[in-house]
Amino acid sequence: MPPLRRLWFLFAQIVTVGLALWFIVITLKPEWVSGVMGSRAKVSIATGTVSIHEAPASSSPIPGSYREAARKAMPSVVNIYTAKDVRANRNPMLDDPFFRKFFGDRPNGTRKLSSLGSGVIVSADGFILTNNHVVATADEIEVALVDGRKAKAKVVGTDPETDLAVIKIDLPNLPAITLGRMDQAKVGDVVLAIGNPFGVGQTVTMGIISALGRTQLGINTFENFIQTDAAINPGNSGGALVDANGNLLGINSAIYSRTGGSLGIGFAIPVSTVKTVMEAIITTGYVVRGWIGVEPQDITPELAESFSLPKKDGVIIAGVLKNGPADRAGIKPGDVLVSIEGQPVPNTSELFNRIAQLAPGSKAKITVLRKEGEATLNVGIAKRPKTQSEE
Fold first, then answer.
1. Which of 21, 243, 343, 387 has its CA 20 to 30 A from that of 53?
2. How far apart (Å, rounded) are the C-alpha atoms in residues 261 and 197?
3. pLDDT value at 84 more than 90
4. Which residues are catalytic?
C-alpha cells in the first residue's frame, strides 16, 4: 500500500474512533464536557432520551430589561390596608324589653369594612404619600412593607382637591424613593406602575407616557395628569409611577374604564404637584391656595355665537361672589377673562390652577374683555376656603 494511502487510512480510523468516544462521553458523562461548553450560550443535558437546554448563569441585565428600575423603586412602595366601622341598620323592636325576652341581646349592628390601596415612602422619617380617597374615611390604617414589616399609620393631612394625602409610620431604616424631574419627562418615555392591584401583592407593569397635562377630566378640582398605558387597576391607587431609572414621576390615581379593569388609559398626579402638596401638608397640615370668588365657565363656539362674544375659546365669568375679591376689584358676570399676570387663560382648569398658585394677600393683574373693550384690574388674592371634606 502506498505511503500516502496508508496515512489517509490511519487518519480516517483515528477520526472514527474519536467521534465514537465523544458520542459515548456526551451520552453517559455529560458533566465531563460541561466545563468545556460552559462558555457557550446553552448547555446540553441528557436526561434519559430527552435533551434539555439551559442558559448559563449570568448576573448582567438582559438588554431592554427594567429590572434595575424596579429593584430601586419597589421597596419604597407599600400596601395600605384601611378599615372603617359601619353601623348596620337595626330593627328598633330589638330594643323593646318585651321582644328582648324572646330574642335576647343582639349585637349593636356595627361591622367593619376593609379596603386596600398603595402608597409611596417619600422620607426616611416615615412620611408616605397616597391618594386621599384611599384613607379619607378610614378609622384604622395599616401599612405593609415589601420586607414584611407592618405598622399602624396616622393621617398627617389630606388635600381632596388634588386627591393626595400624607400618612406617617414609625419604623427605622425606611427606603425612601427618589423624586424624578417632571420637566424632563416626555411623551413616549417608558414608565413603570407599581402597586397592589386587586390585593394580589406588589406588581410592576410597564407602559409609556401617553400624554402630559391632561385636564378637564372631572376627577379633581386641580388637574394636571400624566396619562399612561401602564396597567393600573383597583388597589394601584396611591402607588408609584416611576421612570426607567426608578425615580418617582407621579402617584397613580385613576383609570378610564367601563369594566373596572385597565383599558390602557390610566392617570397619575405628576411629581411637580405631589412635591408642592406634600411639603405644604407636612409643614402646616393642609394646602394654602389663592382664591378670588368667581364662577367660571368654558367658552364654546355655541356660547360665543349666542352671546356675540369676540373669542371662540377661553373663560367667561358666569358668577361673582358678592363682596368677594373679584367683586371688590370690579369683575362682573359676563366678563371674558383673557389673562392673569400676562399669561393667557384657555380654560377653567387653567384658571383654577393659576389662581391657586397665587399667594393669599398678594395682588394680581387680571385682564378681562367687555363690550366696551379690554380692562386690566388689580385683584386681591384671598385664601381659598376649605372644602366640606377638609373641615
1. 21
2. 10
3. no
4. 133, 163, 237
**Residues above pLDDT 90, as percent of the chain:** 39
Q: Please indicate whether residue 239 or residue 30 has the higher confidence score (pLDDT).
A: 239
- Grid coordinates standing for 102? 324572646
Backbone angles phi, psi at 156, to 5 degrees: -85, -40
Q: Which domains does the chain have, with CATH numbers?
A: 3-51 (no CATH), 77-168 (2.40.10.10), 182-284 (2.40.10.10), 290-390 (2.30.42.10)
Cut 0.85: pTM above it: no
Q: Residue 229 has which C-alpha cell? A: 398605558
